[in-house]
Amino acid sequence: MLQQRKPITVGDAVQRVMEYAFQEKKELVSLLQAHGRFLAEDIAADHDVPAFDRSPYDGYAIRSVDSQGAASENPVTFTIVGEIGAGYVFEEEVCNREAVRIMTGAPIPKGCDVVVMLELTHTFEENNQMYMSIKRTFEAGTNISYKGEDVQKGTILIEKGQYINPGVVALLATFGVDQVPVFRKPIVGVIATGSELLDPSDSLQPGKIRNSNAYMIMAQIERAGATVKYFGKFSDDINLCIDVVKKALEEVDILITTGGVSVGDYDYLPAIYEAIDAKVLFNKVAMRPGSVTTVAARNGQLLFGLSGNPSACYVGFELFTRPIIRKAFGNKQPHLRREQAVLGADFKKANPFTRFVRGIASYEDGQLVAVPSGFDKSSAVSSLAGANAFIVLPGGSRGYEKGMQVAVLLLEDLQGSEWPWDNIKKSYK
Amino acid sequence: MLQQRKPITVGDAVQRVMEYAFQEKKELVSLLQAHGRFLAEDIAADHDVPAFDRSPYDGYAIRSVDSQGAASENPVTFTIVGEIGAGYVFEEEVCNREAVRIMTGAPIPKGCDVVVMLELTHTFEENNQMYMSIKRTFEAGTNISYKGEDVQKGTILIEKGQYINPGVVALLATFGVDQVPVFRKPIVGVIATGSELLDPSDSLQPGKIRNSNAYMIMAQIERAGATVKYFGKFSDDINLCIDVVKKALEEVDILITTGGVSVGDYDYLPAIYEAIDAKVLFNKVAMRPGSVTTVAARNGQLLFGLSGNPSACYVGFELFTRPIIRKAFGNKQPHLRREQAVLGADFKKANPFTRFVRGIASYEDGQLVAVPSGFDKSSAVSSLAGANAFIVLPGGSRGYEKGMQVAVLLLEDLQGSEWPWDNIKKSYK
């Protein structure tokens, strides 16, 4: 009955999972819906920005040569020959001592090479003609935003796989991408297991707990950018469970179960994996919490068997499932972002397994410092709410002390890491 | 025609806006919809977690006293008197040399004070009775998760105004909050101004540009957590504009216009504010980009007149509008999170106004370093896509050099700051 499980390292486990990474299909969404999605194509500039020499200010467009000799005691006067608002083009060429009233964003009229800000001019009328005078000289190019100075036509501005933030939206709008190619969101199914689980709306009963894992995981799936499909709770009948899993696999891209992966008699997952011919990639990882995390694959589809303990479940998702979701978006840094931090508390007890302590990473004068966010057991739920990082304490024969350099994995970060695992080992050997 | 505008400091401007801060009404959403919202009530633990002494592992529950004397050469044998899965209660009291097979999460039977992990036991059968033997002693309390060790009943776990992340969702589920009180999302209206604006789906035309600001701002509104209502582009007829603004104000909590706040002849906003009896809180801020940012109020409702330049528009939203949205969620740190960083590039040219350079904040060995994300003009659109921070360079008579300590405001952060402005001044005076 009791199988001996052989633990593998976290890096190895992640690598085995990543062999099943896949890329989602493209779909088009309107620009208004694109924020928060991931681009499915490189976006190149289809024109220069600005597309024409334009005025960054309100003022008067003139020829620099005409300003020569202007001074406080020697104002130079220009005839105002027209006015040009943003969106309009002044068609004639501007000549000697002529000025055109120009608004922010309007194209520079032919002949002009300076915009004098409105504040530096004096306007007056004589015989039904408007004039403008200035009291200083201007160099050619003053206050001109040149064609292409921001972006040159053909530049690849945003690469496939990039997260669409508000700045990216601005670029997409600028280049006329009103139907945005994004990666479809993978559908991640969730099934909860455990006879002890009550729904959040149920009253407490002796020996039972409310099902927090399924709801937590669904929020984690959303945070990672995927779509959730909830299949509720497993029945106690293993044959029914097998049917539910088979059916769920037809409706989702990835399937997560919470609980049922320990070595207990009621832990059905190993039997289910066997029954549906899924290949178990690993069923023991040298990590705390979450050492029983199990991942299996069937016809290329991943089944994540996360622990039933809240903290272990949370960690298992972020380490193993999140990168598969991000990779489906063509993202080149699908893993949690790894950074170095100063440890803000002692962890003197050595542990043979690598620990992922739920922590708070904050800054002290710009230096990242990480402290545990609360009660640190795999069953803990309270430490998750405040956590924005995992503190990575590699397994070994010694503990860790306040002030030591440690790796942290940031949870609420959009950037990610390409591969945080090798380095973790390296840093500590 | 040309009014002289008096610039005020950014801190003063933000303060004037924050006097109009308001708190949204509460609404209930299902737990599945709660991720990403802000809690509208403190959440206290309605029971201990764990709610009962429970087993963190699969194994056997025994009395520690019965393990005394057990050793490799002297195994101690227990009679297995029952088995208990998670969710069930073992009703009898466990006596001398009795053991109960126990699963992860199950309540500890009366009398027991140790759980021996399955791996450390040996089971066998004799005369139709199952037995279990161990080869070492265990201290009382070994492998027991005690009632209340994670959370004690009555503890306030999550405060009103807190962002609901996956860990918070887990807590809400644990405490049976299946209908979650959250703050309603404020509705933020957006109107674009400018005769030069084309829709993103339009072909380019001489002198015109595509409307990137409105789409960018809508994504920024979403990122801040509010709901967008887009009213399209202003007409060229000021009377029609006035009607649109009046009508929009009836449908939204906050109204944003982009463009039309400069001193140009076609900049309608000042006239509109006057026509609708809105009080202008300021129309010039000592900042770059975005010095023309104008904010007005009418019957307690805020009208944000953001610049028509993309970078200026972006900065104006994040500094002035975002905190109003976050404050509507009862959030205590509604402003962009301010941290200290090492400047990664020279900015030698002094500027009398405080500059907000669009930048990338990254870590070098855990130390925050900020470099500009690209072309730095108020009209730039390319530098926004890569930016995750503003580098704050206070105005004055000197420039800044690589390696200096500067303040940064983080754009993609969930934590925020209570009031980043006083310190900025202090740090540099």
Protein architecture, described:
Two copies of one chain form a homodimer. With 429 residues, chain A is α/β, with parallel strands linked by helices. Chain A folds into four domains: 10-24 and 185-328, Molybdenum Cofactor Biosythetic Enzyme, Chain A (3-Layer(aba) Sandwich), CATH 3.40.980; 34-46 and 151-183, Molybdopterin biosynthesis moea protein, domain 2; 59-134, Molybdopterin biosynthesis moeA protein, domain 3 (Beta Complex); 337-428, Beta Barrel (Beta-clip), CATH 2.40.340. Helices cover 20% and strands 28% of the residues of chain A. Chain A is built from nine helices and 24 strands. Chain A has helices at residues 10-18, 64-67, 166-174, 213-224, 238-251, 269-275, 310-328, 382-385, 421-428; strands at 26-30, 43-44, 59-62, 76-84, 98-102, 114-117, 122-126, 129-134, 156-158, 179-183, 187-192, 197-198, 209-210, 227-233, 254-258, 279-282, 287-288, 294-298, 301-306, 337-343, 354-364, 367-372, 389-393, 405-410. In chain A, strands 6-3-5-4-8-7 form a six-stranded mixed β-sheet. In chain A, strands 14-11-15-19-18-16 form a six-stranded mixed β-sheet, sandwiched between helices. The two termini of chain A are 38 Å apart. Chains A and B meet through helix 3, strand 13, helix 4, strand 20 and helix 8 of A and helix 2, strand 13, helix 3, strand 20 and helix 7 of B. Chains A, B: Its EC number is 2.10.1.1. Chains A, B: This is Molybdopterin molybdenumtransferase.
